[in-house]
Amino acid sequence: MKNLLKFLLLVLVLSAGVSLLYDYQLHHGHLSLTTRAQPEKYTLADGPAVDSKSVASLASLSEERRKLVAGVIPSVVSVKTTKRLQRRQDGLDPFDFFRGNFRQYRGPDDEAMVQNSLGSGVIVTKEGHIITNNHVVDQVDEIEVQLSDGRTRKARLIGADAKLDLAVLKMDEPGVKPLKLGDSDAVQAGDFVLAVGNPFGFEETVTDGIISSKGRPNRVDGFGDFLQTNAAINPGNSGGPLINLRGEVIGINTAIISRSGGSQGIGFAIPSNTVRMALESLLKQGRIIRGYLGIETRAPQSGPFGGSPAESGVVVAAVMPNSPAAEAQIQRGDVIQKFDGHDIHNIAELQRLVSQVDLDKKVALEVTRNGKPVAVSAKIKEKPTNYPLARALPPGSPGQQLPPSPNEPDTEGPDEDQPAAPDGGALGEIAVRELSPQLAQTLGVPSSVRGVVVTRVDGGNGAAELRAGDVIEAINQEPVASVRDYEAAMQGLDPSQPQVLSVCRQRSRSFVVVKPR
Fold first, then answer.
1. Sequence-distant (≥ 6) Cβ neighbours of residue 439 within 8 angstroms
2. DSSP letter at 313?
3. Which end of the chain is more exposed for a tag (fewer CB within 10 A), N or C?
4. Distance CA 328, CA 274 (A)
């Protein structure tokens, strides 16, 4: 009993001590209360730190930028896509891992999964046609666009082109405001631009900057034709417009170079003149119509083919049979100086001009032949669908290259001109050949790719997914760097089992599963 009394007494003493300490801190300002007995005195600044009259030009610039943004925002839309991933009824397939990165499996009876994505687009016609990137709407089940005022409308795909990475959508909404496609040829480095879109899902985001560069003729990876800008472009900006001071679309934002995945001031846009050509071609023809001359070219050198030095233009290294160039009697060794009135400074410039010419139009060319000017005219035709491979593999000669030009060393190895015979085993009837650096450049394949090029596909099984021009990099995860590797791999395949091919098609990599016959 005494111990209990002692314990209670100790508790009372401690409680009294805590109470006294709290009262002392409260009265000496060491504790803060949610309400104070006396209001705190404060005084706000009386005026701005800078007189607006002293920065009148900046204030005017800000006001002009507001007008520019307000004029273009109603024409920019959010593009929301939905892709349904079908559920499986027969369990897991071990090769499904190679068919996509987004598919997940929880069991054969689970409901179909849905994948949603966001992008941007811009209205370019009064009828409601919208330009965006092909990769924004590629292989999706539903497309919905959201206008700047919050309204949402269903949209349908009118046409697309994976090579240009452009797509045309259509929504049924009267009274929409289109933006004009400007002249990207008139754009110069240093021009002020705005990038509008939906980075990371934040709608109607505007960033500004300048044109950093345009037309890089020495690049062969596709970026040479783009407009480069330092206006911040982030994931979700894809398909949004790049705007000039007149509120015109001079480009469609499409790519960034970044180590972090976000903007680092190196963004790229498809030039508006290319966009206009693609739009009109898709609306009129349902596909991209590309004109071509039918020539192999290279940059001019001192004394090309024994001729006089050339400071500009491009040298004709070869002429394709039955092509517009052949009919115009353009000859190997000619230096093309002008095309349709435009001076030609590099190969990329010539390619762009040729691709934009209307079909069956006769175009005047000025060439230098043996040091003398010669005028010719060529009737531009549509580029054949197999043109990339035909450039390296002339008709009737599967696997055979164009002969090397005079005074140019043959850089191919002794076995590289020999194609592998069509395989009639596990991969069906396909033929391949070596991938040389020149052929990789022709096919638009990254220089780092190693493999063999498919030249013909006759099989009726899973190999039908292959196309002429595809590069097979590996078979069942075993690298295939040459025709010899390919033939050795064929010897070890079991025709009764599925085969997994690692394939590079231009700049895209994928897996093709070849099933047994």
1. 392, 401, 453
2. S
3. N
4. 26
pLDDT digits (tens, 9 = 90+) for 255-294: 776 655 566 678 889 999 989 988 988 888 887 777 888 8
The answer to whether 163 and 184 are in contact (CB under 8 A) is no
Length of the chain: 517
- CA–CA distance, 279 with 270 (Å, rounded to integer): 13
What is the helix (H) or strand (E) element at residue 202, kind and residue range? none
pLDDT digits 0-9 by tens, 43-80: 999 988 998 889 888 888 889 999 999 999 999 999 99
Q: Residue 483 is inside which H or E element, if any?
A: helix 483-491
Q: How is 46-72 classified by DSSP, letter by letter?
A: SS-SS-GGGGHHHHHHHHHHHHHHHHH
Check if the beta carbon of residue 438 is closer than 8 Å to that of residue 413: no
* Structural domains in the chain plus CATH codes: 71-171 (2.40.10.10), 184-285 (2.40.10.10), 292-382 (2.30.42.10), 417-514 (2.30.42.10)
The residues that bridge with 291 in the sheet, in sequence order, are 382
Rounded alpha-carbon distances, angstroms, from residue 422 to 167, 386, 414, 430, 485: 36, 19, 20, 5, 15
Active site residues: 135, 165, 238
Q: Looking at the DSSP assignment, which residues form a beta bridge with residue 268?
A: 228, 255
